[in-house]
Design brief:
A: mainly alpha; B: alpha/beta; six-stranded mixed sheet; 10 helices
Chain lengths: 301, 237
């Protein structure tokens, strides 16, 4: 039982990270119809920024906030400078730009900070965080930070005029212009927010996966899976999808281990986590192509 | 009366296809003007051209300011409200959010709140449906919402594209009655594009007739209404 709870908790902590990255992907997807393949590498870069700031002597949370702000600004600049000229470009051109962005982030990070794997601190004190035998201090902290970020985002989009304008711009750009919304800026802000959320995910996960330029590769894959399971056009679905995928992969490994223990037959274990998670994703999409929460908009004509 | 909107030699293009050749008209401050014409005459395109939603050449002056080439959202911020064909409500948002988004450009909160109350005065039904998703409203209610949202911009000029489209006759009459009130009480000038020429000529003070991208006739509604060609082609008697 204790083992089960541990696996569940660690699944939730991983899921929180996937949820953040998936949300970042979905935010850009709903407003531009593109999947940003560079989302993970951008987050990795932000994580290095925070590491550098800490190395210069700043405390974790100051470095965290500065890195998130930096990422927001970089996201806005990337949209304005690189993607703006591509607004009417064919999908494939945009995909190529995303892949280029991915490669650039990766190699620049490697050039500045080297490809050596670095340890990354956890800001959550062992003494006051976590529940012994169930959830570790860092895992609990990750889940909490993520939930706070998600709640803030929810409030922002639901209740502020700017959040409303961003939603309007994503849903119907032409009509948004007709009520005076500067749609181009809303896209740039969306990029900024997505980059900032990615940064949160990167900085939170770095303590678990260690810091290196390739740290986000697998996570981005899980995030894609999460977004698809939840429904690629649905931000809330992406978040739930993230938690589902996170818990699922751990449960698969856990079940495999239990079976091996009981029968001595090895069916499945930690090594197959990713494959099994992806198989389940494919299964979900076969049954529900729009994802679990892919909303069919109610419409009367 | 001073002209609020002056359009001269307006040309518009969809890609390589030219759809307006020489459109010109004046909209007097406070009046209701209608554009009539058959399908494909360029009525909708004219409205879209005013808000720079198609490639446009020519001269468009609004309240003495040259607006041609300005971004759509900047033109709207000069307080031109465009109620597009097919209503264009944000279907997954609530009625409340649809109204709030239109007040997004305005900083005067007290005035916005007062506006909202007046808008509900015109459209009490929207108040009842305030938390409902816009996509679940009936066609008539959606048209009302589109007009209400336009009012929340506190427009000087309202562009209406086929407000009667797809609605039951009784609803159409109701909406047109409200439009007249809006024009009188809010001092909003209106440019109305309408298939239903009889209805439009009743409401409007001035009318322009478009044929294949050109203005072929214009004048006070009473005169246009009695023109033999207009009667035959658009009024059917």
């Amino acid at each position: 039982m204790e083992q089960f709870l541990q696996q569940l908790a660690s699944g939730l902590a991983n899921g929180a990270i996937y949820a953040c990255v998936a949300l970042a992907l979905v935010m850009i997807y709903v407003s531009t119809d593109h999947l940003n393949f560079a989302q993970g590498e951008m987050a990795m870069f932000s994580t290095y920024i925070s590491w550098q700031l800490m190395n210069w002597g700043l405390s974790f949370w100051v470095a965290f906030i500065l890195a998130v702000v930096f990422s927001f600004i970089m996201g806005v600049i990337i949209e304005r400078a690189i993607l703006r000229p591509l607004h009417n470009a064919p999908v494939l051109s945009v995909v190529v730009v995303f892949i280029g962005l991915l490669a650039i982030c990766n190699s620049v990070a490697g050039a500045i900070w080297s490809y050596l794997i670095k340890e990354f601190p956890s800001p959550f004190p062992k003494s006051s965080f976590g529940i012994a035998g169930v959830i570790g201090p860092h895992q609990l902290g990750v889940v909490m930070v993520t939930l706070i970020v998600l709640a803030l985002l929810f409030l922002f989009f639901r209740f502020t005029p700017l959040g409303l304008a961003m939603r309007a711009a994503a849903q119907n750009p032409q009509m948004a212009r007709l009520v005076g919304v500067r749609v181009d800026w809303m896209l740039a802000l969306g990029w900024g927010l997505a980059a900032a959320i990615g940064a949160v995910a990167g900085i939170m996960v770095a303590h678990i996966v260690y810091l290196d330029p390739n740290m986000m590769g697998g996570i981005l894959l899980y995030a894609f899976a999460s977004a698809l399971v939840g429904g690629i056009g649905n931000p809330a679905g992406a978040v739930v999808g993230g938690f589902i995928v996170g818990v699922l992969e751990n449960m698969v490994a856990f079940t495999g281990n239990q079976i091996e223990k009981a029968t001595g037959i090895y069916i499945i274990g930690n090594g197959e986590k990713l494959s099994v998670a992806l198989i389940i994703v494919i299964f979900v999409l076969t049954v529900k192509p729009a994802g679990l929460f892919g909303r069919v908009v109610v419409k009367r004509v | 009366m001073a002209s609020l909107l002056e359009v001269k030699g307006l040309k518009a293009f969809y890609g390589q296809t030219q759809s307006l050749y020489d459109v010109g008209f004046d909209i007097p401050e406070g009046g209701i003007t209608t554009l009539l014409g058959a399908n494909g005459a360029g009525k909708t395109t004219t409205l879209r051209a005013i808000c720079n939603m198609v490639r446009t050449e020519g001269a468009i002056r609004f309240a003495g300011k040259d607006v041609i080439g300005m971004a759509t959202e900047e033109i709207v911020r000069l307080r031109i409200a465009h109620v597009p064909e097919g209503r264009g409500t944000f279907t997954t948002m609530t009625v409340d959010e649809n109204l709030r988004i239109a007040a997004y450009t305005r900083r005067d909160k007290a005035a916005v709140a007062a506006e909202r109350d007046r808008v509900f005065g015109y459209f009490p039904r929207l108040k009842e449906r305030i938390q409902q998703q816009a996509g679940t409203l009936s066609g008539g209610e959606q048209q009302m919402l589109a007009i209400a949202r336009a009012l929340m911009l506190k427009p000087r000029l309202m562009l209406l594209d086929e407000p009667s489209f797809g609605l039951a006759p009784l609803i159409v009459v109701e909406i047109f009655r409200i439009l007249r009130r809006i024009n009188e009480e809010e001092k909003v000038s209106i440019l109305l594009v309408e298939q239903n020429a009889a209805l439009a000529l009743d409401l409007a003070t001035h009318a322009y007739v478009l044929e294949t991208g050109r203005v072929v006739m214009s004048g006070p509604s009473e005169v246009v209404k009695n023109d033999e060609n207009v009667r035959k082609s658009y009024l059917g008697y």
